[in-house]
Design goal:
The longest helix is centred in the middle third of the chain and has 34 residues, at 183-216. 63% of the residues lie in helices and 3% in strands. The protein has helices spanning 2-25, 28-45, 48-59, 67-82, 87-106, 118-127, 131-141, 144-165, 171-178, 183-216, 235-239, 257-267, 273-278, 314-331, 347-358, 364-369, 375-378, 382-412, 419-431, 448-452, 458-478, 487-498, 506-514, 521-528, and strands spanning 109-111, 114-116, 292-295, 304-307. The chain has a domain at 184-528: Neurolysin, domain 3 (Orthogonal Bundle). Helix 8 crosses helix 9 and helix 21 (458-478) packs across helix 24 (521-528). A two-stranded antiparallel sheet has the order 1-2. It has a two-stranded antiparallel sheet with strand order 3-4. It has 24 helices and four strands.
């Protein structure tokens, strides 16, 4: 196990550094370097003879008395299983993924005859009352889909090919197995959430539509009337139902968002200045327009970085708090753990930390105690902010259900000719959005996750469930009040969530850190809580 770690370390670091360079520059040189690094990493774990040895250990893992060694075998088996298959096919996948990353990073939409970035598109949809301009901006936000769709289909075909070589029906089911998620269990969770959110979401959508009809003087709400191009958030829409809605962005317009992020994590006793110093937060051409956190390798001291495209406002305040939630997790994994266990327990557990922290951006008590917003400015705003957060979670769950069900169908048959119809049928049923008449574009391919982070979105949902349980546990048993101002909460997170890394099955981590097995109850309670 130690020798495998020694071989993997430089290859893993090279992949992370190449990905960072591509995301920050969008250059052809960086794209080529990412392909090379990815192929060299895969070479380590694609050796079929080595895999047979690891698979034999995995088959007899219950006989390994040392729990740490047993868990390393489980994690290493997953790394090998993910890299098995025809090498030409794997190399082609690396090339296509790098090409897709460059495409999403470099693409700029056109509105009014000029190129605009995602921040500008978001600003138009957030503020403009011009229906024609809004529609043009919304359509522009989907324009990358036409270029990306052939890449996504080919990637899905090739991923399926590798999955079938290993005896899986398709890449979707193979991915769930590698993530240690049982498909039936996930379907049960998602179905329960769909049922639990159906009635409150319909009522919320009715209220939003009434407000948007008044705002835009229309009797028909179309997708471009929503502020978010995928309707995965409704915070700006909710303002249309609130009459003279509070200017939440105003809380941050003249503020240094990085400084507020530092202040937030300082209150928990979690140092992030070193992460901030290595991060890239400013907009510029060629740079990936989204946000993410990454750790460059697993050697200590950990090199953790955040990429963002910050503008003053609630959106980017939430995003920074979210990404630095990933960062403190990555930074504080116990470096004395064996190499392959120096990571988060699961994608869903790191998302839980990020989501819990991101939600503070509109928490009235955080705005007062940490962000220093004067009480006079918060007067009369508190209940509005709480309702806005509740509504946003409802909208996000319905959007995540679209992604979950669409990807499952995509990998069942990437060549089906009705993917555009499938997408809009799901959007109509789950998000209650009307398909623009005559629209037949691959809008599904405009979502970057489908191309480069496949079979991932359910982890945001699981993260929400874990975050609800974790915050409830912290504030009920650790801090007896808001967790974000307490160093006791930070210490608890260090000891129960971050430090243990991947030393145990993620379900055990969730139960130990939150005091209960993973469930939907706490999250559903937060959705139904009266404003």
């Amino acid at each position: 196990m130690a020798r495998y770690g020694e071989r993997a370390a430089p290859a893993e670091r090279a992949v992370s550094e190449a990905w960072w360079k591509l995301a920050t520059t969008g250059s052809e040189e960086a794209r080529e370097e990412l392909v090379r690094a990815g192929m060299e990493y895969n070479e380590i774990f694609s050796d079929p003879d080595a895999f047979r040895k690891v698979r034999s250990w995995y088959a007899e893992r219950d006989e390994i008395g040392n729990a740490l060694l047993r868990r390393q075998v489980e994690v290493l088996h997953g790394a090998f299983a993910a890299c098995q298959g025809d090498r030409k096919t794997m190399a082609r996948i690396e090339e296509l993924e790098a090409e897709a990353n460059a495409l999403y990073g470099n693409h700029r939409a056109s509105v009014g005859g000029r190129e605009v970035g995602e921040n500008e598109l978001r600003e138009i949809l957030r503020t403009s009352r011009d229906d024609a301009l809004r529609r043009e901006a919304w359509e522009a936000s989907k324009s990358v889909g036409r270029e990306a769709a052939p890449l996504v289909r080919e990637l899905a075909r090739l991923r399926n090919q590798l999955a079938r070589e290993q005896g899986h029906e398709n890449h979707y089911l193979r991915s769930l197995e590698l993530q240690e998620i049982e498909p039936g269990e996930l379907e049960d969770i998602m179905s329960r959430l769909e049922e639990a959110t159906e009635t409150p979401f319909r009522e919320l959508k009715r209220r939003l539509d009434e407000g948007l009809k008044k705002r835009f003087g229309t009797d028909r709400v179309m997708p471009w009337h929503h502020a978010d191009p995928f309707f995965q958030s409704c915070r700006e829409d909710l303002a249309a139902t609130a009459g003279e809605a509070p200017d939440v962005d105003g809380f941050f317009r003249e503020r240094d968002l990085a400084e507020l992020t530092l202040r937030t994590y300082d209150a928990l006793g979690l140092e992030v200045r070193d992460v901030l110093a290595r991060s890239d937060l400013a907009e510029r051409p060629g740079k990936l327009q989204h946000a993410f956190c990454t750790r460059i390798g697993r050697e200590y001291p950990y090199d953790v970085r955040v990429l963002a495209n910050v503008r003053p406002g609630a959106y980017w305040m939430e995003t920074l708090l979210h990404e630095f939630g990933h960062a403190v997790y990555d930074k504080h994994v116990n470096p004395n753990l064996p190499y392959f266990l120096r990571g988060y327990a699961h994608l869903a557990t790191t998302e839980a930390m990020a989501l819990m922290m991101g939600s503070l951006a509109e928490d009235p008590e955080w705005l007062s105690s940490v962000a220093g917003v004067p009480e006079a400015e918060l007067e009369g705003v508190r209940e509005y902010l709480r309702e806005r957060e509740r509504a946003d979670r409802l909208v996000f769950v319905r959007w995540a259900l679209v992604m979950y069900r669409f990807e499952r169908e995509l990998y069942s048959d990437p060549d089906r000719d009705d993917l555009n119809d499938l997408w809009w049928n799901l959007v109509g049923r789950l998000q209650l959005l009307e398909r623009p008449p005559g629209r037949d574009e691959p809008d599904w391919a405009a979502k970057i996750h489908i191309a480069v982070s496949p079979v991932y979105y359910h982890n945001y949902v699981l993260g929400h469930l874990i975050a609800a349980q974790l915050r409830d546990h912290l504030e009920r048993y650790v801090t007896r009040g808001p967790f974000y101002g307490s160093r006791s909460a930070g210490l608890y997170l260090l000891e129960s969530l971050f430090g243990p890394g991947a030393r145990e099955n993620w379900r055990d981590t969730v139960e130990r850190a939150t005091g209960a097995p993973l469930g939907t109850e706490r999250f559903v309670e937060s959705l139904h809580r009266s404003p």
